[in-house]
Write a structure and sequence with these properties.
Helices cover 37% and strands 19% of the residues. By secondary structure, the chain is of the alpha/beta class. The radius of gyration is 17 Å and the shape is globular. The protein is built from nine helices and 14 strands. The two termini are 30 Å apart. It binds (5S)-5-amino-3-OXO-hexanoic acid (KMH) and zinc ion (ZN).
């Protein structure tokens, strides 16, 4: 049985720094978090950045600087979010790839997102995917609902294999409006994935721990971080991303599938070593 790939999603676009002081929003905070999370067992970092007022931004110069700073300071696979915030337009989201990350997220459909809508039209998904293929950026297919799994099959049938040649998905569960974060839904989603795909799962908010345990028991990988949950336990705020990674790492160890180091993660995902070499 291979080890467990742990992705950390440290910031996201939704949490408010004023309400969550431990959220990393500056480049220095992000780099410090990344270092701690690598030491705690993360191999991939899923990155959203903030502006000087700690608001989500897709500013290309900032994204480019962030990719270099993370490469300089860590061995983590740098996966930029192309989802951004629900307010971000298609052009800015496509332009994220120009920051030349190792990898990017690629959401396979529209989903209600609390009181908002996270819009991913079919033409947008196709265009984003085609650009990842042209640029050699390895996509992680973000699946918020079972319909997104069907769209992933359609995408692969239409446009062929991703950069790196391997399909890796992330089940994002428990978003209000998306698929619920429970074991039965996880098993149904995993059964529908393309043959040979690997997958991780993350549960939003209070579904974080149940989804993590279900994923480990079903042979999956893990994503954790303050993008997805800002509570470590009921009534106990997260003090930093590293404690979420450390808990995931401990559970992976108990499951006898210890955390994969970044080099092994690159092999698993088809991310060229040279793209992330320092
Ligand atoms: N912030 C959400 C609207 C991704 O990073 O690709 C979208 C999101 C997905 O977080
Ligand atoms: Zn994200």
């Amino acid at each position: 049985m291979p080890g467990t790939l742990i992705t950390v999603a440290p910031t996201g676009a939704e949490a408010d720094k004023a309400a969550v002081p431990a959220l990393p929003v500056t480049l220095d905070e992000l780099v410090a978090t990344a270092r701690e999370c690598q030491a705690a067992g993360a191999a991939v970092i899923h990155v959203h950045i903030r502006d000087d007022q700690a608001r989500p931004t897709l500013d290309l110069a900032r994204l480019t600087d962030t990719v270099s700073a993370l490469r300089e300071a860590t061995d983590l696979i740098v996966q930029l979010s192309t989802g951004g915030a629900v307010t971000d337009g298609a052009d800015a989201r496509l332009a994220v790839l120009e920051a030349a990350p190792d990898a990017c997220s690629l959401t396979c459909g529209t989903v209600n997102f609390g009181a908002d809508v996270f819009l991913n039209s079919w033409p947008f998904i196709r265009e984003l995917y085609a650009r990842t293929q042209q640029l050699g950026i390895v996509p992680e297919f973000e699946l918020f609902d079972l319909g997104h799994v069907a769209a992933l099959h359609r995408l692969l049938d239409d446009l062929g294999a991703p950069a790196g040649g391997h399909v890796h998905c992330d089940l994002v569960m428990g978003v209000p409006g998306g698929m619920p974060g429970d074991a039965a839904t996880l098993v149904a989603a995993v059964a529908a994935l393309p043959a040979g795909a690997t997958w991780s799962a993350t549960g939003i908010g209070r579904t974080s721990v149940p989804v993590m345990l279900a994923a480990l028991s079903a042979g999956g990988h893990l994503r954790v971080g303050m993008e997805d949950t800002t509570s470590f336990a009921r009534g106990r705020p997260v003090t930093g991303n590293a404690e979420l990674v450390a808990r995931a790492s401990t559970l992976a160890e108990l499951a006898q599938r210890p955390a994969l180091r970044p080099a092994a993660a690159r092999q698993l995902l088809g991310v060229p070593a040279a793209a992330a070499s320092r």
